Amino acid sequence: MLESDTSLSTDMAVANAKKFLRTMAQPFGGKEQDGVSTWSIADLERHKEKAEEEKIRELRNGMNGANGAQVEGEDEYVDEDMDAAMMDVDA
Fold first, then answer.
1. Which residues are CB-contacts of 67 (< 8 A; sequence separation ≥ 6)?
2. Where do the domains of the chain lie?
3. Closest to 85 measured CA to CA, from 63, 73, 67, 61
4. pLDDT, tens only, 16-28
5. pTM (2 decimals)?
6. Which helix (H) or strand (E) holds 77?
7. Distances from the Cα of 89 to the Cαs of 26, 62, 67, 82, 84, in angstroms?
8. pLDDT tens by residue, 50-87
9. What are phi and psi of 70, to 5 degrees?
């Protein structure tokens, strides 16, 4: 509802309502909705992949900031405190 539609006389409000209902009564094809209000299987798969990539990125960023460092070029997590503790146990 637009701000201009808030303070109307009764006859203007009825006219706007009729116009709205006529517009809503028009046929609306399913193809016109694709990618807007309905998603195809391909759209859903792309969204799922994007969400999974974002989750992986968040997990990696969280691990990097948690007293560890990611080794360049590897998907391995290095915890420096744990490495130092393991060195003390071996000695």
1. 79, 80, 81
2. 49-91
3. 67
4. 999 999 988 988 7
5. 0.34
6. strand 77-79
7. 77, 28, 20, 11, 9
8. 999 999 999 888 876 655 444 455 455 556 666 666 66
9. -90, 130
